[in-house]
Amino acid sequence: MNKDALPEIAAIVGKDSILTAKEDCMCYSYDATNQKFLPEAVAFPLTTQQIARIMDCANRHKIPVIPRGAGSGFVGGSLPVEGGIVLALTRMNRIVNIEPANLTATVEPGVVTGDFQQEVEKVGLFYPPDPASLKFSTMGGNAAVCAGGPRCVKYGVTKNYILGLEVVLPTGEIIRTGVQTLKGVAGYDLTSLFVGSEGTLGIITEIRVKLIPLPPAKKCMLAIFPRIDDATVTVSAIIQARITPSTLEFIDQAAIRCVEDYLKIGLPTDAEALLLIEVDGDTETITKQSEHIKEICLQQGAREVTIAHSKEEEEQLWKARRSISPALLRLNPHKINEDINVPISQIPEIVRRITKIAQKYQLINVNFGHAGDGNIHTNLMINKDNPEELKRADQAVREIFEATLERGGTISGEHGIGITKAPYLEMEIGAQNQAFMERIKNLLDPNRILNPGKLSLT
Ligand SMILES: Cc1cc2nc3c(=O)[nH]c(=O)nc-3n(C[C@H](O)[C@H](O)[C@H](O)COP(=O)(O)OP(=O)(O)OC[C@H]3O[C@@H](n4cnc5c(N)ncnc54)[C@H](O)[C@@H]3O)c2cc1C
Q: Which atom of ligand 1 is nearest to the CA of 138?
């Protein structure tokens, strides 16, 4: 890195807001993929103006800059694969405003999503996007990957709630996109260009979101299925019954056993699958809907359906679902985690196909996810020190993606592409779209300094 750049950046943020010692930088060298790339420095800006000056400096010196929220991404998006400076946005964590009269709010990028949700719920409002990482992931990281979560089946993903952004471009210019209002169509939809761009086109420094009224009540239930096929068919059956649950989560036997081993909470380890289902709305409607869903589950082969009657019982049912990722990471920090998404009607078929592919390549496979919107998290529990097994896993991933695309799906429902899915992006979007993405990147980032090596951009 150019020697003049670091003192210049230290002068911008202040010497207490920059790390350069190797042991300090190590803490910002990894994400939830557990891959490690050491940055040369980590800066903690506090304002948009500071970020604009840092980008201007980095652009002049051609230094890679990597935006980072909580570093909880599953695809290596915040990793400094070509070295450079990590821009840690966690100190920009102010909720700028919550405006109940306008049903909007504005936040800085480092606000933790769960904290924001709690604040808006205090005034009877609701911000639905709920990645399972909501207790630590940030609004900026969620916007940059367009995070999803269990509630997306009813409420949609992060992009459905973003009205406008403030963004610092790789050249240091500051732009504001979108509107202050709940709708607006003036000019190109630049907000959508940045949401989901995985920190490769600009640094999101402020996010204006739409809020909705908080549903007055919800009901949560757990259905236990002796046969996995019956559980996946039930997902479609519920949707076809014209009920839209607020969550419809699928957990296979390997995931049940893994969580039980971790938490010891008496999960039915003999069951081949569980469905965790929640409905929300007014009390009368959700009572009817939960009874109807229970009936569908039992008709489709569930051996037991438990409806939670208190907040504690509800928490207990959710505990298993929320613990899957940590339980799997504890068992195998190097697991391969994919998040394919298929049309809902294709879920039974894709789950069968994934199981066959894993068997063909002799790999242990764990499936769970937001089945209500077709999003299955499939995890291959590989031994990273066995090159032969790694090769088999690569082949299995390619076949899983092929099977997904054949069924009209996508290789990533919510985690993004980052580095881990970069080799497969063109399979889905084609060479022409990939070349088009390169042209957009060149326009905004002529020196290719912002988050290089991601999204298969050259
Ligand atoms: C236990 C666990 C459960 C998870 N569950 C879900 C889930 O249910 N749904 C889901 O979608 N994801 C889930 N994830 C993945 C992850 O939490 C999400 O992708 C989350 O949105 C990442 O937020 P972050 O703040 O950690 O961002 P980071 O991981 O730090 O960054 C993610 C990407 O965004 C970029 N970025 C971060 N901040 C900015 C910014 N201000 N401006 C521009 N670019 C930026 C980074 O460069 C990187 O490319 C889970 C992860 C874990 C560990």
A: 25
